[in-house]
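User: Run a structure prediction on this.
Assistant: Running it now.
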Amino acid sequence: MAFQQGLSGLNVYSKALDVVSNNIANASTVGFKAAQAHFADVYAGALNGSGASQVGIGVGLAAVQQQFTQGNISVTNNALDIAINGNGFFRLQQSTLDQTGYYTRNGQFHLDKSGYIVNSNGGYLTGYDSADGVNVDTASIVPLTVGTEGIQPQQTGWSSSLDASQGGLIIGVNLDNRDKKAATIAAGSDWTELTPFAWDSTFNTSMYNYSTSATIYDQAGASHTLTNYYVRSGDSGVDARTWDVYTVIDNKYLVSATPTQLEFEPNGTLVGNAGDYRFELDLSATVMQDGTAMDLTSDTGLNWFAQSPGVSGDFAFYMDMGKSTHYGMAYNTDDIIQDGYTAGTLTKLSVDEKGFVVGNYSNGQTKLMGQVVLAEFNNPNGLQSMGDNLWVETFASGQPTIGTPGAGTRGSLQSGSVEESNTDLTQELVNMIVMQRNYQANAQSIKTQDQILQTLVSLR
């Protein structure tokens, strides 16, 4: 009498119950992938005949396959909680030197004391680094780190962030064509006497037609107010389309006693192109103070751009007024753009769907810290589970293909979210009932075999 079939059933369904119990136990584990027991019948060719008379000798556990289906995504309050929506795994390293890859779907990350992005077990999230804060280096994969230091100030000046035909400061205004008033105090020596400006009765709106101001920044990140005063040169003929512009800094320093001249076409646009009206404010040039020549780069109290100890040197930037117009409509400042900013501290981090890690600073600037990468495998079920929500590659899984989120068949990322376990509790409870009944049935088959054997033994 054979007990093999019933005993194999007890063994297999006991393991199947272990699988179901493990799924239920991890129903709240972020990034967990539920497993499923696969069964196979067992035959022995040398026993119980062959072909139509062959009798099986039980059941075996063929495999325990994890189901890499998408889990639900829930929102959290941590910007470094990252959920994968689609295929792929985060790649981790156990140290900055050990380049062995570990893979996970658990995207619960935070910063360690050194600024590295790590998981709860101290594993380092890897990706592409950004050395310049603008582009990423895709040549190598390294642990991602976030510089928690502040961002340095940038003085107003030439920058590629502005159009190549424009300067560090862009001021576009409309000067009212209908205003025929010319300044009652002529430009030139009379303006020179007001350098630096004194806001008293000697300076009033009768001296200019329109003014507009912009904020600019020096090398130390200190802000300064730049004001342009627009004075209509004449009231007839070509002179009626000519304007003098006086530039004053901090309501005190007249940059040059010689104004910049804007000349307009009859249709209200500037004569020539915008580049003709881009000029450099070089504060090493002498200016006038009460009729006396002064040098802003050397005279005490006038080195306005050197507000911090140790800051020295010339301060120059470009101002482009090429967007100015001369239409028959009210005065208006249409556009002010400048590329300087003060120093800033890191206020928050964000990760976009492509995996770009961006730092946001108190001065409104942003800086690219790096880019998270995702790994894919031809056979995810060939991965070996290591615990702690980690897998490692094996010969069966094949080598990973690593790239950016959203590229190819890789999923996209969702910051401030986590992927929940894909365990279906309802299904698992049903599976538990089925496995329990199967276990009981196999126990009953052994009991029946025992009763038959007892009958045989009792024969006399």
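The first strand starts at residue 35 and ends at 42.
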